[in-house]
Q: What sequence folds into this?
């Protein structure tokens, strides 16, 4: 008995149009009928339900970054997509729309909880209208909800997941961009490079820093490099190890490295851990580091004589 | 002052180390730590979290505020179900490392904190419990 039901299901309901969980043939057929009825109910009451939903969105203080008209416009689009999913059983169009919607609203600061909130509100608005319509017949109401719930869950899932995926894509993109920006090797004088490091150093970034620096040393024929770590919030033994290795590698390339910007707290902590930094030349701040580098390179910086005011005015 | 009883931070990647460090720093601040103690605590958390990522791939860090008689402090528990440590006394020696690190992680962390306890079972995982008291 159970086997024949399964076979029936497979042959009769092709692909994505099977919205319901495994059920018998009779049940599936009635589900299809119920969904059709549901769809026509939602079409008939489109205006009123859409307005109700938009009102509830505003009431709940969701999508505060958007204007009333925008909310209504998006609400209409989501509503129509929603009905289309119930009708066709395919979430593809909704997926595409959710992606597009997310792309538009994420830059405006709409949050995940807001998107989930509005989808759940729509679910609530529609369920209430079903309660109202079928309140006289409890058995029918139950069957309608049985047909409606799985579809509604799937829709909420599609929109929520679409939003989160889009967000993750943006975050990945930004991470890449930041990584590109984060380690500039700057030449300040002939044979003198500065490498300011800002932010957290993780193994991947440390590797990148080392690579860029060594490339910079070769390209600029640098003799002295100042690495400034004022902007590094925390240095643990692993990060210190990376620094030491970078210094060693630079030395092999013929450049002396001066590390600047080690805070007193970090210095104390590193000594307690027991990191051996004796091989590293350190100087308190960036300015001192550059002065020392200039001295090593044989530069002497002197203040110019104050120019006469007449020449300045000309 | 309202303090959350315990903060659980799952550790699965380098990014989680940063999260653990920041949360630890924040909780320590709320618990009344300041200055170099904050750096010490966040560095110690960083070391044990890094150990989890490097040796066990995944685990968790649990942060809580300790209220002992007449003193308060911060408790950090780092727990994983990784390969475990075969010889703890060896692992606690300066300069010993199975990886490519400096071999300062565990012994260095012990020096940073006031109390440090490590239990490990080969094949079953490692738990480090450490405390820092407010001075």
A:
């Amino acid at each position: 008995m159970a086997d024949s039901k399964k076979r029936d299901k497979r042959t009769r309901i092709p692909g994505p149009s099977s919205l319901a969980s495994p059920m018998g043939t009779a049940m599936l057929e009635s589900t299809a009928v119920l969904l059709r009825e549901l769809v026509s109910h939602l079409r008939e009451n489109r205006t009123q339900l859409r307005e109700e939903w938009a009102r509830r969105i505003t009431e709940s203080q969701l999508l505060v970054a958007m204007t009333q008209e925008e909310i209504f416009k998006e609400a209409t689009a989501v509503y129509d997509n929603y009905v289309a999913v119930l009708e066709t059983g395919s979430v593809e169009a909704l997926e595409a729309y959710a992606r597009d919607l997310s792309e538009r609203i994420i830059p405006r600061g709409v949050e995940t909880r807001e998107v989930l909130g509005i989808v759940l509100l729509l679910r609530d608005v529609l369920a209430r209208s079903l309660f109202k319509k079928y309140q006289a017949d409890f058995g029918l109401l139950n069957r309608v909800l049985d047909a409606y719930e799985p579809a509604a869950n799937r829709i909420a899932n599609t929109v929520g997941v679409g939003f989160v995926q889009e967000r993750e894509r943006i975050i990945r993109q930004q991470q890449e961009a930041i990584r590109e920006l984060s380690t500039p090797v700057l030449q300040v004088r002939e044979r003198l490079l500065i490498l300011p490091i800002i932010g957290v150093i993780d193994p991947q970034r440390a590797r990148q820093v080392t690579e860029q620096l060594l490339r910079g040393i070769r390209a600029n024929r640098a003799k002295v490099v100042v690495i400034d770590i004022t902007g590094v919030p925390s240095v643990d033994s692993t990060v210190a190890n990376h620094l030491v290795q970078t210094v060693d590698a630079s030395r092999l390339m013929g450049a002396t490295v001066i590390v600047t910007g080690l805070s007193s707290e970090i210095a104390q902590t590193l000594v307690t851990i027991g990191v051996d930094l004796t091989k590293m030349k350190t100087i308190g701040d960036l300015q001192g580091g550059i002065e020392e580098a200039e001295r090593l390179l044989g530069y002497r910086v002197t203040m110019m004589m104050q120019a006469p005011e007449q020449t300045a005015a000309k | 002052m309202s303090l959350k009883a315990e903060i659980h931070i799952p550790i699965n990647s380098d990014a989680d180390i940063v999260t653990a460090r920041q949360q630890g720093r924040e909780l320590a601040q709320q618990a009344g730590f300041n200055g170099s103690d904050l750096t010490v605590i966040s560095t110690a958390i960083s070391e044990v979290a890094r150990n989890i990522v490097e040796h066990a791939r995944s685990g968790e860090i649990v942060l809580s505020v300790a209220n002992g008689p007449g003193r308060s402090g911060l408790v950090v528990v780092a727990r994983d179900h990784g390969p475990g440590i075969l010889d703890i006394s060896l692992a606690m020696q300066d300069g010993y490392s199975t990886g490519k690190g400096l071999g300062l992680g565990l012994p260095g962390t012990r020096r940073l904190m006031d109390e440090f306890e490590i239990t490990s079972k080969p094949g079953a995982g490692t738990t480090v419990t450490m405390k820092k008291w407010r001075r």
In short: The radius of gyration of chain A is 33 Å. Chain A touches chain B through 21 residues (CB under 8 Å). Residues 234 and 265 of chain A are 9 Å apart (CA to CA). The beta strands of chain A are 186-189, 192-198, 224-231, 256-260, 281-283.
